[in-house]
Design brief:
The complex is a heterodimer of chains A (about 120) and B (about 350). Chain A is built from five helices and three strands. Chain A has about 120 residues and is of the alpha+beta class. Helix content of chain B is about 35%, strand content about 5%. A three-stranded antiparallel sheet of chain B has the order 1-2-3. The two termini of chain B are about 45 Å apart. The chains are: A alpha+beta (about 120), B mainly alpha (about 350).
C-alpha cells in the first residue's frame, strides 16, 4: 500500500516536472516578448475560443498566422484593436487592464503549442 | 476443476468470514463503483486526481472523507456509493485510493488525523501481497531533486526520489498504456494544468475546460471533445464573423477522395466540415494547391506539422484517429474477384 502510494506520488512528481503534458490540447504559450518585459507568458486556450468563434475569425479576419511564434503581437497593437484587441477591448471580452488573466503562464515557459498529440519537426507550424 | 473452484471458494469463505468473497482492493472498488461519478465529476462529485476538488472538502481530514463515503452526504453522495454490499473496509480502501491520487496537492484539515485513520484500515484482510513490500521502500539515497513543499515529500524525500528515478513516466513501469494520460489528468482546471501560474489571481478567474465540455459530444483524443459533432448538433454556435452573430459560413460540400498506398483505406477529405470553420484562403494555396494531383501528402509530412498536420495534431484531432480520415474501404484486389 505504502509502496503504491509512493509510486503514485512519484507519478505526480514526474507529471509536474514536465508541465505542458497536462495542459489542455492546443493551449498556446506566447512568450516572445512578455517575459523580456517582466510579464508572465500569455496562455491562449484554443478550446475556449473555438466554442465562440470559427477558426476563420482569428486566422483570416484578424490575420493571425497559425504558425506558432510567427505573429508579432505587441500590447500597443492590442490597444489599437488589432489581434487580441479586436475582442479584448472591454466590450466583447475583458480589456488590457486585466493583465493577469492573459498573462497567467508560468515563468520560463517557451513559446509554442502544448497539450500533447503535438506534431513536430523542422516543418513545424 | 469445478470441485477445486468450490473448495477455494469455501476456503476463502472460511478465511474472510464476513462477506464470503475476498475483499476487493480500493482500486477495484473505485473502478467498479466510484468512477461512475468521481471520474468525471458527475453531480458535483470531487474528481479523481483533481486536487482542487478534494481540497475544497478536506477540512475534516481523512476521517470526514470516510464518514461521507460510508454514510453519504446531503450533496448527493449515496451511502457507500449506493452499493451497500461493500464492507466498510472496502469503501475506506476506495477513499484511500482516491486520496492517494491527489496526495501531493492535498491539504488535509488535520495532518495527524491521516496516520491513525490509515492504521485503522491496515489490519483488514488484503489479498494482495503489497504489504510485504512496504518496508524496504525508504532506502537512504541522496535526493537530487529539491523536495516540493508538500508534507509527504518532506517526510520521505529520499524514497520519493528513488521511486521517481525507477519510474520516470509514472506509475507501474510494466503497466499497460503507461505513456498515456490517465483519465484524471485530462482537462485539468487552469491552476493545475502545469502551464498556468497558480499564484496569479487571473489563473483562478479562467473557466475550467470541463465546465464547458460537460454537454459536448465526446471523442477519444485531443480535448476529448468531438468538435465537428458538437457543431453539427448545435451544441456550440461559434460565430463565423467577429461582429455579426448571424453571419453564416460559406460551406462547400465536396468530398475529395485520395487513394493511398497499401491496404490502408482511402482518405475522404470533406470540404464541408472544414469550411464550416475555415475560409478557403486558410488552406489554399499556401498549404494545399487547389489543383487535383498537385499535392504530395504523406503521413511523415503530417507528423512534421505540414499539410493536414498544420491543424491535425495540434488543434484538430490527431493522427492517432486513423479511420476518421482513412474511411473509404478499398475495392478488394482481383484475386477475390476471380475467385476459383
Amino acid at each position: 500500500m505504502r509502496r503504491r502510494l509512493l509510486i503514485l506520488f512519484a507519478a505526480l512528481l514526474a507529471v509536474s516536472a514536465v508541465p505542458p503534458a497536462a495542459a489542455e490540447y492546443a493551449d498556446v504559450v506566447i512568450n516572445r516578448a512578455a517575459e523580456k518585459n517582466g510579464m508572465r507568458p500569455v496562455v491562449f486556450p484554443h478550446w475556449f475560443h473555438r466554442i465562440r468563434f470559427a477558426c476563420r475569425v482569428c486566422h483570416t479576419e484578424l490575420a493571425i498566422n497559425p504558425r506558432a511564434a510567427s505573429n508579432i503581437i505587441t500590447m500597443s497593437d492590442i490597444i489599437d484593436g488589432k489581434f487580441c484587441g479586436a475582442c479584448h477591448n472591454n466590450d466583447i471580452a475583458w480589456g488590457v487592464d486585466r493583465c493577469d488573466i492573459c498573462h497567467s503562464g508560468k515563468r520560463g515557459l517557451p513559446s509554442g503549442i502544448v497539450g500533447g498529440h503535438e506534431t513536430s519537426g523542422p516543418g513545424r507550424w | 476443476m469445478k470441485a477445486r473452484y468450490f473448495a477455494t471458494l469455501l476456503a476463502s469463505a472460511a478465511l474472510f468470514s464476513v462477506p464470503a468473497l475476498a475483499q476487493q482492493s480500493g482500486k477495484d472498488v473505485y473502478s467498479k463503483v466510484c468512477a461512475t461519478c468521481h471520474a468525471t465529476g458527475l453531480a458535483g462529485a470531487p474528481r479523481y486526481g483533481n486536487a482542487a476538488d478534494w481540497n475544497a472538502r478536506a477540512g475534516g481530514g481523512v476521517g470526514r472523507f470516510y464518514q461521507s463515503a460510508l454514510q453519504g452526504t446531503a450533496k448527493g453522495m449515496p451511502a457507500k456509493g449506493g452499493h451497500m454490499t461493500l464492507s466498510d473496509g472496502e469503501v475506506k480502501g476506495a477513499v484511500d485510493y482516491m486520496l492517494a491520487a491527489v496526495k501531493d496537492g492535498l491539504k488535509l484539515g488535520k495532518a495527524e488525523e491521516a496516520a491513525p485513520a490509515k492504521a485503522e484500515t491496515k489490519p483488514e484482510p488484503k489479498p494482495e501481497p503489497k504489504k510485504a513490500e512496504a518496508k524496504p521502500a525508504p532506502t537512504p539515497a541522496p535526493a537530487p531533486a529539491p523536495a516540493q513543499q508538500s508534507p509527504v515529500a518532506a517526510s520521505a524525500p529520499a524514497a520519493i526520489a528513488a521511486a521517481a528515478a525507477a519510474a520516470p513516466s509514472g506509475g507501474d513501469v510494466n503497466a499497460f498504456n503507461r505513456m498515456l494520460k490517465p483519465a484524471g489528468k485530462r482537462n485539468l482546471p487552469p491552476p493545475e494544468d502545469g502551464i498556468h501560474d497558480p499564484t496569479v489571481d487571473g489563473t483562478h478567474a479562467l473557466q475550467p475546460p470541463l465546465a464547458a465540455f460537460g454537454t459536448l459530444p465526446k471523442s477519444f483524443a485531443g480535448n476529448r471533445v468531438n468538435w465537428v459533432e458538437a457543431l453539427d448538433k448545435n451544441k456550440i454556435s461559434p460565430r463565423a464573423d467577429r461582429q455579426d452573430p448571424n453571419a453564416v459560413p460559406v460551406v462547400m460540400d465536396l468530398n475529395v477522395v485520395r487513394e493511398v498506398k497499401g491496404s490502408m483505406p482511402d482518405v475522404v477529405y470533406p470540404h464541408k466540415q472544414h469550411t464550416e470553420w475555415l475560409d478557403c484562403s486558410n488552406c489554399h494555396p499556401a498549404i494545399f494547391n487547389p489543383q487535383k494531383g498537385s499535392n504530395v501528402i504523406s503521413m511523415a509530412a503530417i507528423l512534421l506539422g505540414e499539410k493536414c498536420g498544420v491543424c491535425h495534431g495540434k488543434v484538430a484531432f490527431p493522427v492517432s484517429e486513423c479511420r476518421l480520415c482513412h474511411s473509404k474501404k478499398k475495392e478488394m484486389p482481383a484475386a477475390t474477384a476471380q475467385g476459383k
